Amino acid sequence: MPDGTGFVHHACLYGTDAEFLAMAVPFVRDGLTAGEPVLAATTPANIDLLRRALGERAHALDTAETAYFGRRPVERVSAFLRYHDRRARPGRRVRMIAEPVWNGKSARQVAEWKRMESGLNVVLSGLPVWMICPYDTRSTPDDVVRAACATHPARVDGERLIPCSAYADPGAYVAGVPLPRAPAPPGAARCGPTARVPVLRAFARDRAAAAGLAGERLALAVLAVCEAAGYLLAPGDVRVALRAWEEPGALVYELLCAGSRPVHAFAGFRPPGREAAPEDGLWLARTLTDSLDIRTQGPLTRLTLHIPDPHDAERL
Amino acid sequence: MVHPHGVRQRVHVGDLQPGDHACLLFESDEERASTLRDFVRGGLAAEDKILYLSGGRGPAGPDALLDACRLPGLPAGPAGRVEVVRLAEFVSGRGHLETLALLRRLRTAARRSREEGYRALRVAGEPCAALPDGRGPRVLGALGVARLLRYEAMLAEEFAGAGALALCQYDTRCCEPAALAAFASAHARSVEADPLVRTEDLTVVRTYRPQGLRIEGVVDAGAYRHLRDALRSVAAVRGDVCLELSRLEFLDLGGVRLLMTFARARAARHCTVELAGMPAHLRQVITLVGWDRTPGLRLGAAHA
């Protein structure tokens, strides 16, 4: 059993209900016995299985239907942290079963979730959480199952711990799993380079309005761009060039900045805390967009924001 | 309750121009003093002559006036530039304001200020304070109110030219709502204190009904210092504070954090901070971060 001082991140590759329970039941039972908060964020079917197997003990188990426990990676991290903040007890570790949904995701989303699985080792580092991420090999694509062994330092099989020899340093891993990217079209609208946020804000607003966004959605799009720009400009003595174009389903903003501070791929995954932190605005930009991709190439940093366009019927 | 500003054009007191006849309906001594301070300071800056109509407990002379305005040591200019006139001189033995005599006095003062080369005569005063201690429009009766309204009408006519401007202050605590409405309607403008912050992108105004700030325009990293200072200026307010945000065009996350920090500080004093007229998207942002649980914070109705 890992000690309770830092983040422990294990995968569990299971191919049957019995294999899932062989991992989950002792993990939950031992946690509850130790007085630790325990969360199972998994499929409704697995929650049912687990509850039946736990019997009376199931009353003490926190559960969440995983598809709604953070729909996107940044929301997922926020959900983990929120659970920890609300449930943690002094001196006690928190246990989580966290099974992502993989089926039906787009190539971009699969890449984002793989990167997040790796990034959790960095973003949640130091948090007294023991997290096991189950992967159902009956339904999960092969490449995702393989990725689990690269994004988790070890996996559990029942109660047996097996180190993952394919585990990769998160920085190196995400470099090898780039998000699909369509370059800016030649006709993309341009602004800057400039260090003046009001100029970027006016441009962002004009492009959002031209894309058909209005009211609250327009204001949130402008805010996302300004927070991303503000993050790049914060070190001072740099300028940001902003481009915008429309793709089916999305308004895309691309911010280019030479000479800003080094930006790691997991920047902006932690929600703002009690004290202000440099990445707070980037977290908001991530949260307000469908996707925020960070790429660095030498001194050049590129932030690409995908914002759902007016045809996103969920936001009608 | 009478709306303090009615449908008249509301201006910052520092923006008053010669020819203006404006009123301030105040409900606290702090509001009266703050507005008077801005009025006097504006007059000194604009090379106006200042005449203050002082009531029973008001300042007795120019130095006392500058002290009351918390402008001690400010150069009042040549002797006679700041003048204090006791309203008691214009109250009849029966306790009535002698409006014609007062107007004659003001007319003379306006003419003299022009002759002395001032831009304008700037008059401020509290007409009700002319009445003996303990009396106010609540006991003034319809006749007394009518008498004051006649004074206001004549003053408006007298000061319609470019050589003078007047600020008439009425204390809402001692006036009947109907009388207040009538006094307010006798003025073309109502005033509020000068903004605490006025930059190209951001205006922050101290408000008194309710106590708080009205924040207009853009708050981004370049404006944090201004917003922080403005919030500090209402840190000592007793009771709850309202931040009116309906004219806010942009507030970034760092700006929202300043508001949350302010709310937490107020909560420590068992008071709340209401964000009124908040743009709908900001409520969403506050909720996303989890700041809607901030102690002391009340999220008012969203701005349509």
TrEMBL record, chain A:
Residue ranges of domain MEDS in the record: 9-153
Pfam families attached to this UniProt entry: MEDS (PF14417)
Name of the featured protein: MEDS domain-containing protein
Domain of life of the organism encoding this protein: Bacteria
InterPro entries xref list: HATPase_C_sf, MEDS_domain, RsbA-like_anti_sig
Automatic annotation (TrEMBL), chain B:
PROSITE patterns attached to this UniProt entry: STAS (PS50801)
CDD domains the UniProt entry points to: STAS_anti-anti-sigma_factors
Domain STAS stretches: 213-304
Protein source organism: Streptomyces mashuensis
Protein name stated in the entry: STAS domain-containing protein
Taxonomic superkingdom: Bacteria
Pfam families: MEDS, STAS_2
